[in-house]
## 1
Amino acid sequence: MKTLILGTRGSDLALVQTRDAASRIGRAFPDLVLEEKIIRTTGDKRLDVRLSSPGSLDKGLFTKELEEALLDGSIHAAVHSLKDLPTGQPPGLVVAAILERADMADALASKHPGGWQGLPSGATVATSSLRRKNQMLLLRPDLNIREIRGNIPTRLRRILESPDWDALIVAKAALNRLGMEVVPAGLEVTTIEEMLPAPGQGAVGIECRESDGETRSILSAIHHEPTARCVTAERELLSGLGGGCHLPLGARATLDEGGKLHLLAALFESDGIRWLSQKT
């Protein structure tokens, strides 16, 4: 193989993640030519869809077209935010590499200092995640949680420029990858320590054809097994609950110094926690 084509969504975050993956591959295989192919997914086109209740669009909202490009051979590998990737791959596809996980926490970008505790009574907080909505309402039942769509820089600008919004909940890993300079002056970013992340949050997964041994071999060079162990546990829990990427499940798996895996998870409904479990 002389050229490896990486498929990606066209958002700023997706491109940063894909270029990071390409850089890792390039260091491992300096003679390999790496190309990037941008593919628009249903989730990118359908900004009218509510992610908190996507119905039939739930599975594969941000991945379907990338997987179709893999299957028809127009790309060799697809780079995904792992939390967006359904737990079951289409026949013939595998997740061949998982990159080392970034910060898995959620963060609040707010016009008001002091994190979620500093939000004024009745403040309007933006998120498209039912998981985030319910956890925030457990912390602050007085808040008004509203859905928002668009890429992260656009959402941040909307929060700052509109008097109707007070804050945005976003993955901390996304802000770190984009660079904190993407956050406009006037917004303060704080970590929400009390919130459980989505399964796989902060991790990047790279998918390819199961039969493509050459690509699988290349991707194995950048695979991070400790991250894979943790996110696999989180995603297996999600799969066992029969949920798609938008099931309001919070899950955080960690490895202790002895290599033992610990998993903390909570499943939410509109009226709060329905199920809570801790496993080791």
## 2
Amino acid sequence: MRIMLSGACGPIFHSYFNYIKNLNIEVLGVDIRENQFTRNLLGNNFLLSPSAEKEPDLYVNFLINNINKFDLFFPYSDEEILVLSKLSNNSALRKKVIVSSEKSIQICNDKKLFQNFSIENNIPLPADSKVKEKIIKPLVGRGGRNIFRVNDEKMINPFRNSDDWLVCDYIDGDEYSVDSVSDGKGKVIDSIARLRIVTKGVSIESKIHMNNKVIKLAESIISKLSLFGPTNVQIIEEKGTKNLYVIEVNPRLSGGAIFSALGGMDMIKLTLNLLNNKKNDISIKNDGEYYYRYWSNTT
């Protein structure tokens, strides 16, 4: 089995790569940039690709030209999954890509569409109430990029009146990251919940915390969206009230996938078993365990 993962030059790939190769799975890495560390790590198993965001047609052609080099592709970036979700279900490339339907991907990627979907399905989101402190974020964005925490009404109003931004209350509480694998027909195979202790773009410290209420909410969303393969749902549990609010849904491998794997649920292994019609037993999770990610300079 040869799987391909994108974002090969990022720290998320490096930490996950060492885990996956111990499963006797050959790993290819693809990225729109390259560095010497990744070249040394992967050798000929590294592929330099066009940008899915800037050159979608070239990106798809690049994958078609290299289709015989991998058995399955787990795309990581939001731009990639949106492009790949538009492929015909009958195409040879689409059959090798782990991606959900175009409609589901669009709902997850566009915060306004997700807001409408949540209202229709009674999914709790942070409101834009009279609370002074707000979170301002672009309707289409990734991770924590261009997200602001503001308590000045004069600064908030221009964003509130814009078609490109979403304004909502800042919720003070514990942030959970729920990783799941589902079959694309509404059935969730398994899930694991992590408390995000320290983040810097991506999680660098997590604690496995199997909060059943949080997991149940995440799985209900995944089921309603009929997502396929790995999915990550971020939820905040408000201090005091213990009310839950959904922050976002990422229909792909999460940045903390390595934490979930070490914590008792490997999303890639579950997906492979699903595709091969192997029974997936619910695994024992390392509830309460902490996991850390480290980076080091290299030449």
## 3
Amino acid sequence: MASASSPTQRRAIRRAGVRASSAFTLIELLLVVTIIAVLVSLLLPAIGGTIASARAFRCKSSQRTIAFDFQVFADDALHGSRGQDEVDLRPGYFRLVTFQDSQYQVNSFWGYGNASTAELPDANGRDPMRCPDVKGILKLRRGAPCTQGGVGPAENVSFGFNVRMHMSERYAAVGRNPHVGLTSKILEGNSKADPASIPLLMDVDGAAAVANGVSPLFAGPSVPGSTLLDNDRYWFPGLRHNGDMNIAFIDGHVESTHRPLQQRNWAWDFEAGEPVR
């Protein structure tokens, strides 16, 4: 007859039983892992969508700020320095490229002291001309306007300005200088287009612009009768916000669309300005 177990042995047996009953079985562990995996798979699209929406919102905010700065720059009573335009052009006139220089802080608006180059984002996190979905450094070069190597590489440019506020097809068609000077009247539009319908700047695809052999700093689609801008040479929209692009208008508001050429009230053919003399 087996001897009765000692008190010490009985306590050991009870502890082992408790451990056995509280431990996970392999099936239970696999079930927990499966549930966690399913939850993660359900949450990831929502998290990704939230991040994408936040980036699109930041892009819109940047464009609104640029549009507001343009309104100030174009206003005869409010504008500050207009750089070399104050010498080269008639009183009250400015060039769109000069406004771009002021935003990038290049050429006459160099904002980096004695440095010969700078990068965006800079040491202070300043990156005003950038959509957060566009990665890579923008290098700024002292002494050069943005259209002549002051900003690059072109592939990393985020925003393009309305090319018809920079060049005029009608002047090019008759052999005149296509570059135009603007005045404060641009803020009023004209009888055919109000400021809320005139695109100012938009998301662009810098790599597509390079493939077209042009700068991404200016963009716009061809319209009937296009000569200088035919074959959509300057049309490379950045459809990076879930298939949408952001576009800021002269009046300061920003819209998103994946069909920018099908918006009936948008004045893509608007031209304003006089030849630069």
